[in-house]
Amino acid sequence: MDEVKKLALTFDIGTQSARGVLIDPDGNIVAKEKVAFKKPYFSKNPGWAEQESDFYWENICNISVALKLKAESLWEDIVVVSITTIRDTNVCVDKEGKPLRPAILWLDKRKAEGKTVLDIKRKAIFKVAGMTETVNMIKQASPCNWIMENEKDIWEKTDKYLMLSGYMNFKFTGEMVDSKASIIGHVPFNHKKQEWMDEKGLTFPVMPVPKEKLSELVDPGTVIGRITKKASEETGIKEGIPFVATASDKGCETIGLSCVTPEKGAISFGTTATIQYTIDRYVEPQKFFPSYPAGVNGHYSPEIEIYRGYWLISWFKKEFAEKEEKEASKLGVSAEELLNKRLKEIKPGCDGLIFQPYFTPGVAMPNARGAAIGFSDIHTRIHIYRAIIEGINFALIDGMKTLEKQMGVNTESIYIAGGGSQSGEIAQITANMFGLPVYRTQTCEAAVIGSAALAYVGIGEYKDIFSAIDKMVHITSEFKPDMEEHKIYKKIYSDVFSKIFDKLKPLYDIESEMEDK
Questions:
Q1: CB atoms within 10 A of CB 328
Q2: Angle, vertex CA 441, rays to CA 424 and CA 27, nearest 5
Q3: pLDDT in tens, 193-203
Q4: Which CATH number, 3.30.420.40, 3.40.50.1980, 2.60.40.10, 3.30.70.1250, labels domain 7-245?
Q5: pTM of the prediction?
Q6: Which residues, in sequence order, are bridge partners of residue 305?
Q7: Residues 6 or more apart in contact with residue 309 via CB below 8 angstroms
Q8: How far from the centroid of its chain's Cα atoms is residue 152's Cα?
Q9: CA-CA distance, 42 to 35, in Å (whole number)?
Q10: Nearest to residue 168, comparing CAs of 77, 95, 243?
């Protein structure tokens, strides 16, 4: 390690944990510190998800200080700092940058009344497009509208309405600047032009945050400032080191998997499961749904999201895996490791048990519910466990097919990251289900590699992100598909899974109406 002369210090804030990582220009992780949040969020009311805004900064400071102690001999080699964070998490700050209320997280379920009045022209456009219900749902789900309606004094004092990424950037540099590739959430953003929307924008009244309350935007890979004296004192990072704006966690993850051309699909097996691509033109993943700005300048990242993704594994462990939890504790391993070993006991298709993973409604499926279909007396809880994994993959296959159609590109390979990607069993099942080779890179935490790559580009270590990826991303595992098993999955997908939602939609609509009452 004495030969290392340049290091990027990259932080990653997730929903349930945060980490700080030292990464060299070859993509090697040379030191890491991680903290799991004991209480990722709190709920003052059912469905709410909030966290004190400085909770994240305090954790970053603690991680940084601990990492410095662990890797003191390397600390002087840090030449650039960056951060990537969870998306759609907002912070209201005053003119001094002080938070006015707790941050509202992406999984918050409060509903605004959505009193914003749409003009006749917009109403007609949304009606013709069949988007009236979706627009109303977005209005209700947008935290800015709830704050405007219920905390008017807070909104009046709000100088800037920041994404969590923008607030962290401010804490490091004193600048309220954010990357275009981090603006993913309920804010008035023109995704095609990659700029804030003005009042004339079609959907501006749905999330009517005026431009003066929004941060300055820059391209990913831009040096936005330097570590301030105050940040240096709190983190132990040397004052004056350049700080680079990168991209959202999913955007950095896609880069960290080397998925910067459209034939490569990036799958995240995280709390939220996603399949995302990178393409050099604007492509709507679904009609009237935006494609996000990619971590690659001038590119876009169309994405399909399974909102509760690998959260379902946590749900399963809590409800069904008490035996594995106890055994894992004795053995000093994770319960998932024990459960994954048993996946081979169950045949592809789980003896007719099909799991639909849409536990939480989204804008594309406003009344969605989860479903398990095909139970019989032969099914065990391990069947349920495998059915969940297969169900998530079926939903991602659905997403892949949608995105391929929109992009006009066929997927040639899949790259996986996130907690679920650590399992060789899950990786092989994924290859078999997609019928494509599946690859893992040097770390399941690919977002930090992507963030570090952008950081190095920002300071000129690499001429562009493609050059950085060539040096920094390393394939460590390949899982080739069993095409006989793929035939089974292909038939299950076309004959059963792809038809479940439409068949059950009338029931979901009734349940939604009952909840509203």
A1: 18
A2: 150
A3: 999 999 988 88
A4: 3.30.420.40
A5: 0.92
A6: 274
A7: 268, 269, 270, 271, 272, 273, 274, 357, 392
A8: 30
A9: 18
A10: 243
- In CATH terms, the fold of domain 311-410+481-516 is Nucleotidyltransferase; domain 5 (3.30.420)
Number of C-beta neighbours around residue 413 at 10 A: 15
- Encoding tokens for residue 303? 């994405």
- Do 7-245 and 311-410+481-516 have matching folds? yes
C-alpha R_g of the chain: 23
Q: Which of residues 396 and 125 earns the better pLDDT score?
A: 396
290-337: pLDDT as tens digits = 999 999 999 999 999 987 788 888 889 989 999 999 999 999 999 999
Residue type, position 422, single letter: Q
Q: Are 220 and 454 in contact (CB under 8 A)?
A: yes
CA distances from 152 to 79, 136, 395 (A): 43, 21, 40
pLDDT tens for 468-499 read 999 999 999 999 999 999 999 999 999 999 88
Residue 429 belongs to what H/E stretch? helix 424-434
Domain layout of the chain by residue ranges? 7-245, 258-306+437-479, 311-410+481-516
CA–CA dist 478, 344 (Å, integer): 19
pLDDT for res 2:
45
Give the span between the Cα atoms of 394 and 220, in whole angstroms.
32
Residue bearing tokens 């209700």: 140
Going by DSSP bridges, is the β-strand pair 242-245/300-301 parallel, antiparallel, or unpaired?
Answer: unpaired
